[in-house]
Every structure is written in C-alpha cells, then in structure tokens.
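During the no-cost extension, the postdoctoral fellow (Dr. R.K.) reprocessed legacy sequence entries with the updated structure-token encoder. One reprocessed record is reproduced below for audit purposes.
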Amino acid sequence: MKKALLFIITCTVAIFSACTDDSYKEGLTPEGQLPDDMPEWYYTGGKLGTTYIFTSHAFEQPTGQIISEGMYDSFKNGEALFENEFMTNNTGTRSGLGPAYIRTSCLHCHPGYGHGKRIKAGTFETDEVGNGCLLVVYDKDTEGYVSWVAGMPQGYAVAPFKAPVDHNKVIVTWHEYIDEWGNKFDDGEIYSLQYPTVEMGKDAIYAYNKGELTDSDLGNYGVKLESTIGVYGTGLLDAISDEDLTAEWTKQEQDGYMRHGVNTAYFAGGTWKSPYKSTAVNSDGKSYPRRYTYAMSRGPLQDAAGANAIWNITNVTRSDRQSHYLDAHTANGKKSSWARASAKDPDVQAGFTAYIEQVDPDKKYSAWHEGAMEDRIYAYLTATNLPVEMTDQEYIDIMVWHRGLAVPAARITDNNYETVEQGKKLFEEIGCSYCHRPSWTTGDDVIRDPAGFFKGNELPRFPQQTIWPYTDMVQHKLCMEEDIRTGWCRTTPLWGRGLHQKVTGSSTADRLHDCRARTTMEAIMWHGAAESDARKTVEEFRKLSKAERDAIIEFLDAI
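Re-encoded structure tokens follow.
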C-alpha cells in the first residue's frame, strides 16, 4: 500500500470534508484505498499536483505544495475572489466592477473551475453561471481581431454607461452537419454533429449606433464562439520548461507529419518567429514561448489568460493595470470608439456627475469634474492612472490559487482498468498521442514573470514532475465547418475532461473550442475533415470495432 499517498488523501479529505461526501471514494478500491500497482499515468499531476477527489468539487482542490508551503490561506482568498461576484460599489471587497464589463465573476465562465458549458440556441444569453462562451469578432478578410470592440467584447455596463455590444441582438444558431461518411460507421453505429453560427447585426454595436463607427470601420466582420477552458492544472503546464516547449515545436516542424505543419506566423526554422512579449508597463522585455489560449496569445502563466482575465472580464483595476479595458479603435486622435460614443451620449452625460462623485468623492482627478461634460467623460474612460480597485495582495492570492490548482487522478478501478488500458493502447496506436502527447516532465519551474509584478517566492512551484495532460502545447488545424478563427488551435489538454458533466452539471460533454461536441464520440469525429491534421487518425479510428472505439472513449473519459 502506498502509505504516503494515503496520508495525502486522508489529509485532503479531512480539509475538504465540508464540500465532499462519500463519493470521493470513486476511482479507488471499494474500501477507499489505492492498490499498490497503479500505473504512472494514474497520477495525472505528478506527486505534487494530483488530487484524489472526484466529486463535483474535483477541479477545486489545492496541490500538495499549497499545503506544505503554507499558502492555504492565500489560496482560499484567491478562490473567494474567483468565485464571488464583483460589485459596482467603489469601496470594500470585490468592488469596482465596470464601467463596461464581460461578466461579474470568473465562475460565470468557468463553472466548477472547468470548461465553459454549451450556449443555447437563440439570444446570446450570458447571465447564467457556467456559460463560458465568448464572442470572437474578427475581420473575415484578414482573420485578425477587429479594433472597434475589445478583444473580449463587453456585453454589460454600469449605469449611466451602455454596453458596447447588445447581447439581445446577438443570435446563436446550431446547425446539423453530415460528414462524408453520413455520420455512420461501417458496422451501423451512428452519431450526430452540430456546429454554431453567430449573427451580430450592426444595430448591436453601440458605437456604430452613436455614429462613432462607419460601415467602412466595421468592414467585412464576422463573429464566432469560443468557450473558456478549465483553469485546473495550469500551474503544472507553466512548470514545463521553455526549452522543452521549443523542442516540441522543433520536432514537429522537422517531422513534417502534420498536413499543415506548424504555425509559421509563430515558429519557423527551429526558433520563435513571433514569441510572446509582455506589453505591461513594467515588462521585463524578454521573449517567451507561447503556451496559453487556443490562439496561443499568451506566454508564462504570470502574464497569461488568468492574469489578464481578472482585469478585463470585470474591468477591475490593479496597480499594474490602472486603465479600463477598452476597444483599440482610434479616430481623429482619440482612442476607443466606445469611449468617444459614451462621452457624447446625452444619457451618459446626464448621469455622469452622480457616477463620478461615487468613484472620486475627494475630487483627486480634476479632469473628471471640470470642463465640458464630453471631455470629462472621455478623460475618465481613457485614463491610465485610475484608482486601484484590487490590492496587490488580492492579486497575489488570485495567482497563488490559479497556479496551485491540482488535477484529478485518472478514474480507474478494478472494474474498468482493462478496458481503459486497452483504450489507452489503441489511442496511441492510431496516432492520437502525437498531438495529444501523454506526458511531460516539468523543469526547475523558475517563476517567469513577464509583467514584472512578483518579487519573491509568492507562488507555488512544481519542479521535476511527470505530468499527464495529453497535449503537445502546439497548434494544429482540424478544418472543421465554421472553424475557429484562423483555423489554428492549440491542442487542448484532455486531463479531467471526463468529469466535465459532474463538475458543471451540464447535460452534455461540451468538448472542443465552442462546445459543439455533445459527446466524446462527436469530438473525435470532428477531427476527421478531409484536410484535417488528424484525418489519418480518424480513418484508423473508423477501422476499429465498436468495442475498440468504446474503449478509446472510456479511456478519454477516465483521464
């Protein structure tokens, strides 16, 4: 018996007894004890990053490092900031929401800390906790983001301001799709496929309605959906060394196995053609491999999606981000179409004095209180020295929590082990494991801080751990119908995804970048387009018997 591991399990269950029940024993033996011969891949997050709780709270557990390094209080404070809503009040905990924002809390997009849930057909409703779908507004001609809404378009605003995008005028439609095989295997098993489209008319765009944007400004724009991904285990991915990430990209470039190769806009000739560099005021100016988001728009975790989202989703300022999250459209020397439109809006002007007196009661910012009303509003919205609404310690706590989340162990028992083991073997044999690389060994995990915020050893670290995320951390193309913007998408980690429905309460598996796949089978078959990098793998999958296909699915749902 693994006595040390049993001790960790016992402590974890004791600590979290308030949020667990007897179902934590799922995945263990009937007595709730681990057998002696568990395979290495059972320990998904390595010795330091694996949790053995499989309830609806499975993604919320701290790594062992959080406990051993005395970071538990900080972790729980960060958890509270993640889970609870930010408010429009200007003082107190979780204050400072807006003036424009995307959601009131992080949990709205990451239900149970996991992947977002599928959005329903009809109006783009985002009030429900769990709807992690965001709008991607892009130029169809260049495939780049448009400048006239924020990169993550904001659908809400604090009075007297008005939302940059009117959700009620954004419509999502789900379409049935029939693939070249007629959604049927040779042995008669059938499956169904769906994909979403989004319509966002010009009348949904506030700045256009107010005359600050023209048809020429809007251009040939399109809108897509992208769902959030799980936040658990991101600290372990951050612990993979930059050198090992670069080596994987180099290997794949040299192998030439993928039809589309690697994304040469980012990487070519064994080097990073476009590495990640922080744009923060205190940026260290260094270059880093890209590693986070579907588009790989971010580098190290300390300046990645979570560090960014705790600011831009809620528009709550902190000492290193003392400006509002705005669009980047400039006209006549003035930035932000939304700021310009808001400054001229009679309704905003009528309510601004009462609003700004709450924000700045001591009138420390004279430009917000004196002069023409339009100038006052514009000065406030575009200021770069706004009052700090999130303390430095609160931000540190958020990042301790973010970096310190564990990954659930594989869900294998005596009852399913043989099938799962068979599925794992087949997964590797038909080629899935090339992109969904099973394991990595982390490096020394020296904290990389591109934005220059962290000064010491505030964050947990995970050196020399063998982890099993099932991702190569590289982008590929699946060439799906109504595909992701640019077609390039980072291979999503598969660890924990089989727990999605238990954790989020969703009725479907919600796999892939826009939650189009309602089952694991659907996710696999969406890889099979004629030009897809995974085409040959899907062809091999189709040759398997139903029992063998089911074994692969059971494996994927178990890891």
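The first helix runs from residue 3 to 15. The chain has a mean pLDDT of 93. The remaining legacy entries will be reprocessed before the final report is submitted.
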